[in-house]
Amino acid sequence: MTNTKPRKTPFRAPTGAPRRPRGEDAPSTDKAPRPARGAGAPAADRAPRRPRGAESPATDRAPRRTRGDEAPAADRAPRRPRGAEMPPAERAPRRSRGAEAPAPERAPRNARAGHVPPVQRESEEFFAEPKVRRAPRGPRAEPTKRERHKEQPGNPERLQKLLAQSGVGSRREMEELIAAGRVNINGEVATTGQSASPGDRVKVNGKLVHLKFSNRLPRVIMYHKPEGEIVSRDDPNHRPTVFTSLPRMSGGRWVAVGRLDFNTSGLLLFTTSGDLANRLMHPRYNLVREYAVRVLGELPEDARQRLLDGIELDDGVAQFSTFQEAGGEGANHWYRVSLFEGRNREVRRMFEAVGVTVSRLMRVRYGPFALPSTLKRGKVLELSDSEVKSLLADFDMANPAPGRPVRKPRER
């Protein structure tokens, strides 16, 4: 098939017009005269100026229509007879079923989700069924944390007893501080035997003390002390202390019930009541301390009998109330021993007196408390309120007011 499209011919200038060399200026006869810089257009080209304030001529103004006159027929839009249908050109195009409305025609969305127009809301409320009001809630089965630690109003009590209950120290230490004039009540120096009431401001060595009266149940915790911790807040050698592992308190402090050596592990009791701690440590209550002891080598029978009969130490005679074998392999042998006092390094010194070295010592019982097998080293287990009340009853201490909420035991 042949291509019938005509070919394009290059443009050629007419032969009669003379060509001007490139770069040469056009002759002056062909150029329009340029007006001088600053000169206006010639008078023939300018429209005549109207004086300032004069009205434009009537020929230039559009004819004004008087008020009430109708616009001329040429300016008015043709009216459609009544009942006649609108022409298709003027009708809005119909949207097909299911198609979304364009953005300008859609109703604006409210910023709040689930907004209902007021008219629709009123109609829905009118035809809706009446709401059934719920019965008022009864008292909570378990108190909140704030209610659990809320202090009940108390009666006046002796100052040394209050300070001991608040965990400042033992009752004997508080009596010495009061006698030295280092305790103030409401800005005045306290005296021995003075009482304090709820609302009194008591300071020890210039520091305000949060008093805990007898109506508030003390807290008691069991701590599994690991080896390598000291039972003291002030250590010149800056060794690790057991108090860094205990729960923090906003007021008062923890009082240790007895002590354990730096290299001794096992059960250690703490309480917020100095009076309770004093009774747990007092010899007249005759609380048993039971230890698991591991020694190097075998213990002769005569040495065991000497430990049961009593051995003279530097600070007096010491003896075990019970002595039982607890197994062991090789050079290490375990024994279970118990005694009713707790002097400094007493168990170790008693074994050294019969020529046996203790390689490991662990306390497993203190009075009615036994070290739980589930309590890991460095962890804390707090006694429940029922256990604390039973403990107070055993030591002839008055129970707090019965209105105090129950506190759950906690483990850390």
Please provide a written account of the structure.
The protein has 412 residues and is an alpha+beta fold. Helix content is 16%, strand content 17%. It has helices at residues 118-127, 145-148, 159-165, 171-179, 274-281, 301-309, 346-353, 385-394; strands spanning 157-158, 183-185, 188-189, 195-196, 202-204, 207-209, 220-225, 255-257, 265-271, 289-296, 311-313, 316-318, 322-325, 332-339, 358-366, 369-370, 380-382. The strands form four sheets. Strands 7, 8, 9, 10, 13, 14, 15, 16 and 17 form a nine-stranded mixed beta sheet that branches. The protein has a four-stranded antiparallel beta sheet with strand order 3-2-5-6, with no helix packed on it. Strands 1-4 form a two-stranded antiparallel sheet. A hairpin with a 7-residue loop joins strand 8 and strand 9 (265-271). The model is unreliable at 147-152 and 401-409 (pLDDT under 50).
